[in-house]
Amino acid sequence: MTADELRSLITAGLPCEHITMEGDGRHWFATIVSSSFEGKRLIQRHQLVYATLGDRMKTDEVHALSMKTFTPAEWAAAQD
């Protein structure tokens, strides 16, 4: 899987204001900014992202995905 394919899967299932993806085809690191994360704990945010990937995590199509998740306000504050 490519970074563009993974990014497309996530953005198709989750409205993202910003997303970056780095990785080697199996191990990925993402930074994701979404208003859908408002009021959600970290585990709930990650579950939202994993839900966009469906069975791809279980079938090893995406072996590992590490992520940092931000609301738009958190992201704006982190950029200052």
UniProtKB/TrEMBL annotation:
SUPFAM superfamilies: BolA-like (SSF82657). Pfam families: BolA (PF01722). It comes from the Bacteria. Belongs to the BolA/IbaG family. This is Acid stress-induced BolA-like protein IbaG/YrbA, predicted regulator of iron metabolism.
